[in-house]
Amino acid sequence: MRDDHTTGTAQDEVTLGRIETEVALLMRLGEATRRATGTAEHRVLDRAAYVILRHLDSAGPQNVSTLAAKLNLDGSTVTRQVSALQRDGLIARTPDPADGRGTVISPTPAGLQRMAAVQAARTRLYGDILAAWSPDDRETLAELLHRLNDALESRNRRR
Amino acid sequence: MRDDHTTGTAQDEVTLGRIETEVALLMRLGEATRRATGTAEHRVLDRAAYVILRHLDSAGPQNVSTLAAKLNLDGSTVTRQVSALQRDGLIARTPDPADGRGTVISPTPAGLQRMAAVQAARTRLYGDILAAWSPDDRETLAELLHRLNDALESRNRRR
DNA sequence: CCCAGATAGCTGTATCGTACAGGTAAATCA
DNA sequence: TGATTTACCTGTACGATACAGCTATCTGGG
Fold this sequence. Notes:
2 copies of one chain form a homodimer. By secondary structure, chain A is mostly helical. The first copy, chain A, folds into 2 domains: about 1-40; about 45-159, Winged helix-like DNA-binding domain superfamily/Winged helix DNA-binding domain (Arc Repressor Mutant, subunit A, Orthogonal Bundle), CATH 1.10.10. In chain A, about 70% of the residues lie in helices and about 10% in strands. Chain A has helices at about 10-40, 45-60, 65-70, 75-85, 110-130, 135-159; strands at about 60-65, 90-95, 105. In chain A, helix 3 (about 65-70) crosses helix 4. The longest helix of chain A is centred in the first third of the chain and has 31 residues, at about 10-40. In chain A, about 30% of the residues are buried. At the A-B interface, helix 1, helix 2, helix 5 and helix 6 of A face helix 1, helix 2, helix 5 and helix 6 of B. Chain B binds a DNA duplex through helix 1 and helix 4.
């Protein structure tokens, strides 16, 4: 990459460009990995379902709109995801006692179990991928990714 | 399922779990950001088109199969992406002089210009998001993401 | 108390990215 | 040269998503 861009210390521009590149690449690779890994056996839980179950697990039962807002998804999308999850017995819908329009979505034991299995498989996968890394580097990666996500999230919220 | 995995220290398991979580989150946020950012003005170039143009830019003109292999995509997918790019004047197809079955895909000036614009916008976005970060931290993030991608890629290739 | 608006969720429809199966034409090899 | 492989395209299907429009319910000002 040449120094196309003037502003700020050139070095910083370069670094930002690298980050942009690497994030784009990671998204592509992550998708490919998920596709390759999932197709085989745990086709059981596609990406959307997994994030919904994770969120329900960590944030507790909640209704569709809340879920949609948290996940940055349209309500209709979540409605459909949730329907599929219910069909598969992974979540339950109960009428919201406090609001006749709402339904509260909660994970079923089967759903939690399924989610945990996928999570464990993914964690194992990362263990495999990062086998050669030092604990320190892993720690730093986790930390920086966390901060990156925080930054992305607060920026998304701000607009 | 505690230390199913032996090798190491519970702490390491925890770190792997965090990495798994953060990567999943990043993919979701990245999608959301792209959607939010892109819709407004540079709806000009969706994700798939962008990665294709980037690849053509960095790796030079090449035919559909090569491109598909590099991008971990099915040939038919790339065929269609390329058709759309051609329709929009962003790439050109020329018959492969060395192989009558093949077509060589190359970016047009318009395509490169468009790609550079999107790339610059994204880089600017990261500059914005990471405004509060020290150059050192940015550098480390870029470096670790690069190593993570390398690891993911070689793992994908290996199977 | 009632109605006007807001909100929760669902359904219809559309788009995008992707895969797989099957076709045709060109290349290659035994 | 004929069988096989390769490169690409087309048909079809699916998953994830958005937006628009619908119904049922809630809520706040008269």
